[in-house]
Each structure stands twice: as C-alpha cells, then as structure tokens.
Amino acid sequence: MNKLLVKCIRCGKQWEKESAIAWGPDAFSSSLCSDCFVEVAKETIRRKQKNEGNFDCFGTADTYCDQIACKYRRWCLHLQQDEEAQPLTMAR
Ligand SMILES: [Zn+2]
After folding, report:
1. Which residue, 21, 34, 45, 47, shows the most beta carbons closer than 10 Å to its own?
2. How far does residue 80's CA lie from ligand 1's centre (Å)?
3. Summary mean pLDDT of the chain
4. How sure is the predictor about 69, in pLDDT bands with cuts at 50, 70 and 90?
5. Cβ pair 34, 78 in contact under 8 A
C-alpha cells in the first residue's frame, strides 16, 4: 500500500494515510486533523444535531459516547482515521 502525506491546513500537523494510488515524494493532501476538524465543524454539527432531535453534544465527549446512532459520533470521538480498524468493542 502506498502512503500519502496529509497536512492539516489549520495547525500544520502532518500524518500519513494509506492510498491505492502511487504518489510522488512531494505530493500531499490538505485536510484537517481531528482536533481542528472538531473545532471548525462543531458549531454547524451541533445545529444539525438539534435540528435532528438529538443532543447538541458534538465535541464534548472525550473518549466515550453512548449515542451510538449519532452520525457524527466517529468524528466527535476522533475515529475517522481508523476506518479500516476492527469495529469497536463496546464496553458496558
Ligand atoms: Zn490541525
């Protein structure tokens, strides 16, 4: 699997993600890191949560959230970089 360098456009943090495409050594993709994404998106997402009849709690959970059906949960809990990981085992 090839690696693509991803740079956060807000804080400059860099990380790698796996990519099906072979990129040159200078290629990188601009994105937002987990922390910056939550900062930038929380106002909008909280408004959506309210409109959809849910708690407007986006960005307030630390590592655990019981709102399993919430569609913003994986971003809120910074899970979006682990999409290929095993499904989370729910500790109850
Ligand atoms: Zn950032």
Report:
1. 45
2. 14
3. 84
4. confident
5. yes
Q: 56 C-alpha vs ligand 1 centroid, how far in Å?
A: 23
The model's confidence at residue 61, banded by pLDDT at 50, 70 and 90, is confident
Cα(7) to centroid(ligand 1), Å:
8
Domain extents in the chain: 1-31, 34-92
Pairing of strands 14-19, 2-8: antiparallel
Q: Calculate how far, in angstroms, residue 92's C-alpha sits from the geometric centre of ligand 1.
A: 32
Q: How far is the CA of 17 from the centre of ligand 1 (A)?
A: 15
